[in-house]
Amino acid sequence: MNVSESSRAGSPDAGWTCSKAPEVASVRVQLEMQSLWQQFDQLGTEMIVTKAGRRMFPTFQVHISGMDPAAEYVLLLDFIPVDDKRYRYAFHSSSWLVAGRGDIAVPGRVHFHPDSPARGAQWIKQTVSFDRLKLTNNLLDDNGHMILSSMHRYQPRLHVILVDQSRDSQRFAHRNFCTFSFPETRFIAVTAYQNHRITQLKIACNPFAKGFRAADSENRHSAQSQSESAGLSLPWSVFEGSSACEDQRLQHQPHRRSDAHDPALQTAMTEAALSYGAGTDRRDGGSQGHFYSAPVFVTVPCQWDGPSRADRSLIG
Question: Cα-atom radius of gyration of the chain, to the nearest Å?
């Protein structure tokens, strides 16, 4: 039986009850970090999908109440397409636009919470977190990750299933579960963040992004210090129109023909510039032009400025 046919959307405020078996009829679900989810939803939540799998942030966490303490339950999470469209991000308007018809949906997977099955007393005494769940775009994934298509919009759903030990449990399977979904948890799967505000919000709120915040702060401080001391550290002027001392020095030197009017030099510099711009090496034995420009200080983050690869995989 199709689970979605008998499911009811759960409200993040009231939780909405499921009018089914007594053990599930009174179940209520409250979304954790609801305000954070709403902040992302206002910007258009994006979740990274990779071949190896990437964890979600914000993490899908809920608080459950109304369970029978003695009964056993299984918790499942799955993702369904919101529509049959493919999206693209318009940078000029900072908004998502429909780009066409979506890809054919891959066979759906469900993620079992690792504590399943467990008694209701265990589920209701603590926050239930799906922090081990990973999203992937690898259609051949064999690690149990959730397979999603990039640039498509998805809705997470939580299924609460009662473990029925009776012999004829299959006959009443439709009565032993209920489904909850929260509109603010919708997201678009991407291989790289499109909206820079989403990136900033994730770095600011994700505890695993502490290394990125520290590196960004250090880079800004280093760039500021270098820009303030650049004029003092250079032995010559690097700005046009500011070399008064150089002009005075040239006035006392014997007059000589300017290299700028040397046709041979101009030809060599032009050819070298064209060769450099095309990204090719001159191998014809001709003269090469060498260009000396003013030093440019560039702050490049090193591998110790940020978290390790293992830590980066934790950032949603």
Answer: 30
Nearest to 10 by CA among 175, 135, 156: 156
pLDDT of residue 264: 53
Q: How confident is the model at residue 240 (pLDDT cuts 50, 70, 90)?
A: very low
Tens digit of pLDDT for each residue in 286-312?
444 444 444 444 444 444 444 555 555
Cα(50)–Cα(112) distance, integer angstroms:
20
Whose tokens are 């259609």? That residue is 139
Neighbours of 15 (CB within 10 A): 19
Q: CA distances (Å), 34 to each of 62, 199, 227, in order?
A: 10, 19, 42
* Token pair of 128 as six digits: 């239930």
Q: Tell me, yes or no, if the pTM score tops 0.70.
A: no
Name the one residue in this structure whose structure tokens are 């081990």. 132
Cα dihedral 181, 205, 43, 110 sign: negative
CA angle 131, 134, 138 (to 5 degrees): 180
DSSP, collapsed to helix, strand or coil, labels residue 274 as helix
What's at 116, amino acid-wise? S
Query: What pLDDT was estimated at residue 166?
Result: 83
CA 166 from centre of chain = 45
Rounded to 10 degrees, the C-alpha dihedral 78/144/98/39 comes to 60
